[in-house]
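Dear colleagues,

For the upcoming journal club I promised to circulate an example of a predicted protein-ligand complex. I picked one with BIS(adenosine)-5'-pentaphosphate because it came up in last month's discussion. The inputs are reproduced below in full, followed by the predicted structure.
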Amino acid sequence: MIVILLGPPGAGKGTQAKRLEERYGLVQLSTGDMLRAERKSGSALGRKVQAIMDSGRLVSDDIIIDLIADRIDRLASKGVILDGFPRTVPQAEALDRMLRDKGLKLDRVIEMTVDEAALIDRIAGRFSCARCGASYHDRNHQPKVQGVCDVCGSKEFVRRGDDNPEAVKTRLEAYRRQTAPILPYYRNKGILRQVDGMAEIDSVGRQIEAILNGQ
Ligand code: AP5
């Protein structure tokens, strides 16, 4: 199964992708996580994208397509959840070509609809596990044991450099201007579905599962 989770920053793509990994044994491919890993490693690519990411703008299509092509090539046949990719029409077209070359096709694109005011609150409260990346929120989603990651038990947490009001404004604008135009692309293919991303995390998860189970 190949699924795209689509939605603005803070819609809950990463949160739901992690759930789907557990539920369906799919692999989460997050271009945001891959870019953050490049930055952490201090690679030339990581240094190149640092300022762009911190400002909230999108990294160029050629960098992103190069970054993800090898992963798609190795993992698509096992089943993947794409989180944060594609984000522009050229990226969507490149994904189609990559899958076609492997004789695969996209099963579903799930749009997570949300209210912008809520997104700012979600992003401002977000923190994640420094070791495994599991995502939490100051009010909505604390670890079960205070200060201990539910998934891996680590006690170290981090907050993202682009989760500040100025960068969030730019990220929302980039979504409206560059990413939302891919919705009609998938609607025309008949594979776009919507879920209410404002519902509670478990409820959003159930809506997505119902779609993937063909209900
Ligand atoms: P990326 O890492 O993809 O960030 P994003 O799209 O801005 O999305 P987020 O990770 O902020 O949000 P999310 O939807 O995953 O929400 P989450 O589950 O964490 O990209 C970062 C940057 O990298 C980009 O700005 C760009 O520069 C670059 N980049 C990446 N991919 C690119 C590409 N393809 N092309 C070009 N550039 C690219 O949830 C948020 C918070 O809300 C959490 O605290 C969570 O616990 C909470 N929450 C989640 N669901 C709910 C719920 N239902 N109710 C209440 N709280 C909830």
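Two points we might discuss: The longest helix spans residues 61-75. Residues 7, 9-15, 31-32, 35, 52-53, 56-59, 64, 84-85, 87, 91, 122-123, 125-126, 135-137, 140-141, 162, 171, 197, 200-201, 204 surround BIS(adenosine)-5'-pentaphosphate (CB under 6 Å).

See you all on Thursday,
B. R.
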